[in-house]
TrEMBL record:
Domain of life: Bacteria
Pfam families, alphabetized: Phage_attach
Any one GO biological process: virion assembly
Natural source organism: Paenirhodobacter huangdaonensis
Protein's recorded name: Head-tail adaptor protein
InterPro entries referenced in this protein's UniProt entry, alphabetically: Phage_Head-Tail_Connect_sf, Phage_tail_attach_FII
Gene3D superfamilies: Phage tail proteins (2.40.10.180)
Amino acid sequence: MMSIFDGMAGVLSDMLGSPVTYMPRGGGSRQIGSIFRRHPTEDVDRDGHAVLVMAPTWRVRSDLAPEVQRGDRIAPGDGRIYEILNAQPSGSPAVDAHLVCELYEVE
């Protein structure tokens, strides 16, 4: 079923994002236009409550990196490398909804 939100994640990534190098544990790194935030951000949990996320985060369209999992890494272009702690759907009903990944700096 079509949703009014379909396509919005792509628009947000294009407007607010930049290329991030995604490095899955299995190899085959690639650049993905997505949104990386190093400073605390506000998000919404599964129950619709506002939460403050203190860890660095990476928002990526779920259709561009459906295999994202704990232990994968990203290089957002700030000279650092971050490892994914967890990845959760953003809660949007859109087919191109973001995954929200909590990160920690490894290099």
